[in-house]
Structure formats: C-alpha cells, structure tokens
C-alpha cells in the first residue's frame, strides 16, 4: 500500500528524507539546469529572459502544474507518483510539453546547448516511459544523476562529486520505501547514460 502518513508522524530520518526529496524534485532540478544553461549562453538579459521563460515553462513548470492539478483532483495518488500505472500518462504529457518548447526555441534561435539539454530531457522521458510500462524506476534519482552528468560535461569532471547528492537522493527514496534498491540503481544508470550520451551527441561531441 502507499504510505500517506503525514510528515509530522514520521521519525527524524523519514523527515530528513522527505526534505531531500522535496529539494531534489525533478521539476526543480530541471528548472535550475535550464536556467543555468540559458544564462551561460545568452548574450543579453532579453535573450536570457525569453529563452529561459520558454524552456522553464514547457520543460518544468507546465508539467509540474499538470501533476499538482491531477493530485488535487485525485487522479494521481501523490506528487511522487508512486503508483507505476499512473506514470505513463504524465510522462507522455511531459514529453509533448518539452517538444513544444523545443519547437518554440528553435524558432527563437535558441543556443545549441539549450536545445541539446532539452533533447536529452526528451530522451530521458522516453526511456522512463518505456520502462514504466512494465516496471518502476526512481525518476528522482534518474533526474539527479542526469543533472550531475550534464554539469560535469559543462564544467569538468570535478562536478562528478555531485554523485554524492545522487546517493543522498537514492537514500531518501529507500528510507521512504518509495523504491527498491534495484529501482534506484537503475534510475541512476538511466540518468547517467542518457544524459551523458545524448547531450554531447547532440552537441557534436563537444561542449563550449
């Protein structure tokens, strides 16, 4: 059964795990990474504002709003979407939303790094969708791992120290019994391999 016990009734370890999960929620990580790449490539505040608004709206904010709306209506059990059968529809919606954002950003002559990031996000969503049809992985861990992979590609291998955060995220999912060890391990591998492979491929193998 899904544990819907209020946070205040949980122990200290569980409360810490909840906070970790909230701070590393996939929409938040996606939002931060999109803004970072946008500012990194923009030549003016107008460009940063335009590209950042479009990217954040379609790749982070809109999927989050739809998720919260479905939770409020009772269509989805909780914000973490712990029931596997409820995940595919949300993943399809998020994929379509990101693709719409990509189309708009291409029309706005957005930088290649930003488009490559959105391409990697789309690939990750499609892989997660395929897996979710038959099994459940930790999307929290997958997004955290993918974020670390892209940061390392952008700023150097020292950023792979961020994998310690991925371990922390995996720990939080296990403590809250949202996932098994296999599910967090596969989530981490999916995030690292998809982001680490698709992103540089879309950039032609190099980052600026």
Automatic annotation (TrEMBL):
<feature type="transmembrane region" description="Helical">
    <location>
        <begin position="16"/>
        <end position="37"/>
    </location>
</feature>
<feature type="transmembrane region" description="Helical">
    <location>
        <begin position="89"/>
        <end position="108"/>
    </location>
</feature>
<feature type="transmembrane region" description="Helical">
    <location>
        <begin position="142"/>
        <end position="171"/>
    </location>
</feature>
<feature type="transmembrane region" description="Helical">
    <location>
        <begin position="114"/>
        <end position="135"/>
    </location>
</feature>
<feature type="transmembrane region" description="Helical">
    <location>
        <begin position="183"/>
        <end position="203"/>
    </location>
</feature>
<protein>
    <submittedName>
        <fullName>Phosphoesterase PA-phosphatase</fullName>
    </submittedName>
</protein>
<keyword id="KW-0812">Transmembrane</keyword>
<keyword id="KW-1133">Transmembrane helix</keyword>
<keyword id="KW-0472">Membrane</keyword>
<dbReference type="InterPro" id="IPR036938">
    <property type="entry name" value="PAP2/HPO_sf"/>
</dbReference>
<feature type="transmembrane region" description="Helical">
    <location>
        <begin position="49"/>
        <end position="68"/>
    </location>
</feature>
């Amino acid at each position: 059964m899904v544990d819907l016990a209020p946070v205040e009734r949980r122990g200290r370890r569980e409360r810490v795990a909840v906070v970790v999960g909230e701070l590393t929620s996939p929409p938040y990580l996606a939002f931060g990474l999109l803004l970072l790449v946008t500012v990194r490539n923009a030549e003016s505040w107008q460009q940063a504002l335009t590209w950042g608004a479009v990217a954040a709206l379609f790749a982070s904010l809109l999927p989050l709003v739809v998720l919260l709306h479905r939770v409020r209506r009772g269509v989805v059990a909780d914000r973490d979407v712990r029931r596997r059968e409820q995940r595919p529809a949300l993943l399809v919606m998020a994929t379509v939303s990101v693709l719409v954002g990509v189309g708009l950003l291409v029309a706005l002559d957005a930088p290649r790094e930003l488009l490559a990031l959105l391409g990697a996000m789309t690939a990750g969503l499609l892989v997660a969708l395929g897996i979710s049809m038959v099994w459940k992985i930790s999307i929290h861990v997958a997004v955290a791992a993918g974020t670390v992979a892209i940061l390392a590609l952008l700023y150097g291998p020292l950023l792979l120290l961020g994998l310690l955060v991925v371990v922390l995220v995996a720990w939080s999912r296990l403590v809250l019994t949202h996932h098994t060890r296999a599910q967090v391990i596969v989530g981490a591998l999916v995030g690292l391999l998809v982001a680490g492979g698709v992103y540089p491929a879309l950039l032609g193998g190099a980052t600026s």
